[in-house]
Amino acid sequence: RQHEAPRRVKRAWVIPPISVSENHKRIPHLLVQIKSDKQQPGGVIYSIKGPGVDEEPLGIFSIDKFSGKVFLNAMLDREENDRYRLRAFALDLSGATLEDPTDLEIIVVDQNDNRPLFRQDVFTGRVVEGAEPGTCVMTVDATDADDPDTDNAALRYSILEQGSAGMFSINASTGEICTARPGLDRETMGVYNLTVQAADMSGDGLTTTAMAVIHLQDINDNPPEFTKEEFSMEVEEQAVGVDVGKVFVHDKDLAGSPSWLAKFTILEGDPEGAFAIRTDPHTNDGVLSVVKPLDHEVRDRFQLTMSVQNERPLEPSAPASPRALATVRVRVRDVNEAPVFRENPRRISVLEGTPPGTPITTYTASDPDTHQIQTLTYALLYDPADWLRLDPHSGTVRTKRELLHPSAFLQGGWYIALLLARDDAEPPLSATGTLSIEILEVNDHAPQLQPPAGVLCGRPGRGGTLLLGATDDDRPPHGAPFHFQLSPQHPQLARNWSIARFNVTHAVLAVLAELPEGPYSLPLLLRDSGTPPREQQQLLNVSVCHCGRDGTCLDGALAAATAGAGITLGALMIILGSTILLLVLAGLGAARVRGRRRALRKGLLQRSGDDMRDNILNYDEQGGGEEDQDAYDINQLRHPELFSPRAKPPLRRDAPLSSGTPMAPRKLPSSPSDIEDFINEGLEAADSDPSVPPYDTALIYDYEGSGSVASPLSSIVSSLTDEDQDYDYLSEWGPRFRRLADLYG
């Protein structure tokens, strides 16, 4: 088998890279001619493809399809494209490929057509004043769009202008700016403006410039100084919190910085600390003010020594200031001052009940203006109870009324009054003094028994006790504890009664022997714990009730005892007087009724020619209430035939349900002349009937129990004369009723 040898590519079809300078102005420009060795009858068709031909940017390169010549049709810019890679093709007339596609590379050669560019127009840097030479401040840098591998982009830096001092230098290769000489002083020049340049071709090509601004940072190398050695000021006495004046300083350092701000100190002349000085942050001046009131009469002039320094410590290299101290003279002007109560408030004590006109204190003020002759007058500014009287010239306070407890104007036992002191200057000034008066309690009230009456069982040990209490109008310590005891004037009471202490305000009354039911009056002696103690004998009304099995009062007995309990001597006298008056009136009334009844029986009906039946009117019924309105039926008088013995008598509505009819019917009157006898017989029948109460008796509206020690009021109508009453029981009521027993017993 015959082996083929490897195909050899023709040298004419292998195209080396082609170099062309950017910005070439001869257009069109022949770059290269390509040729295929495989010539066919009729010729070869050449073509190229790639960027600059059929791809963006279009139309830069073209080829003659018959000769294979490649042309440049536009100016090239290396900064946009530094090379182009194309593909070349060889075809026969029928379009068949004669050669494999080959690469065509076009390299754009750089030209120095771009100036260097600084990254910013102005560079800013800072360095402290007094910096040593070689202290780097900042770095300026620039760029060049040309080929960095050529001198077209080789940059060099320089300082074109910085003033005559020449305080800074720049590194030509890196652009770093540093200090070149000593003596940087912010107070002399605070800002340096440098013009820097960047040039390509290693400094011989295209150039550009920028600004480098260098600020010197301040240090405290200048001490503050007073503008003069002595200042004079003036202030009124008693003024507090006011500014007296200013002291002025000067500092060369940067205004507003800590190296510029001043700090003032008062070294001498103010031992009491009456003055203070602060710094005005806007002007850096010292402001002197008064923090304590000044008194012209005590001291009228001050000489202050002040110092000034910065808030930041001074640099060691800074020179000392010859004006770091100053003298300030302050004169105190005299003004009218208000009077002063040296003791405010004034506290005094006064016994309650102090009589009017009693001097209790002299409350005066003093005038601080000792260099002026002034007169003080006094007035009461506040006296809510109108208890006091004040001497306007001497300030002596006297009582106007009796000071008593209790009072709505006392607060915790204290009475508060306000006094006004005024001078006679122009304009006048005044002061207010507080007078606190303690009203001391006096034991002027004895304890009072509360309550003054009670009920207890009459058996010892079985409910035979009563809790007693007392009150006292005096305040502690003149009140409780209270002491209860039976009156020493009646020693016989100790046989039946005893008193034991329960607590500081109460005691227990106990029965020692069984006592009969009834009222008892026990004289007790009550004493408080005041100094000196007050005691008073008081009467305790005790009602001894009927005892039950458990030692308590039975219901009926308790009601009766309660009704009689609590009767004092005055109330008992009123009851007795009322009873006697009722007895006298009842006797007179009964005698008058008897006389009128006899006159009526003798001929009342005979003197009248009218029918008596028409004159009987039912004006009022005091008997059985609403149920007896038909008790006296006038029809019996008008129509007696309806009420014959054969007819059934009407049933009385007020009679009990169990009551029957009368034993025998009464005979009715047959003529008007028999009406009087009929009425009398009816009254007699009603009085004789045991089942129906008569209308003129006292009705029982409420049951009040039994066993009352007092006689019932219904007993008044049981007799018509005083001779029928028995007053012997008055002798049993004790010595207080002995006089009544002698009069009526």
UniProtKB/TrEMBL annotation:
Record membrane topology: Single-pass type I membrane protein
Transmembrane segments: 569-591
UniProt entry tagged with the keyword Phosphoprotein: no
Domain Cadherin: 12-118, 119-226, 236-341, 342-449, 464-554
Disordered: annotated segments: 643-671
Keyword flag Calcium: yes
GO molecular function (one): cadherin binding
One GO CC term, this protein: cell surface
Pfam families in UniProt: CADH_Y-type_LIR, Cadherin
Alphabetical list of CDD domains matching this protein: Cadherin_repeat (cd11304)
Sorted UniProt keywords: Calcium, Cell adhesion, Cell membrane, Cleavage on pair of basic residues, Glycoprotein, Membrane, Metal-binding, Repeat, Signal, Transmembrane, Transmembrane helix
Any one biological process term the GO annotation gives: homophilic cell adhesion via plasma membrane adhesion molecules
Compartmental location: Cell membrane
Chain's role: Cadherins are calcium-dependent cell adhesion proteins. They preferentially interact with themselves in a homophilic manner in connecting cells; cadherins may thus contribute to the sorting of heterogeneous cell types. M-cadherin is part of the myogenic program and may provide a trigger for terminal muscle differentiation.
The protein's name in its UniProt record: Cadherin-15
Gene of this entry: Cdh15
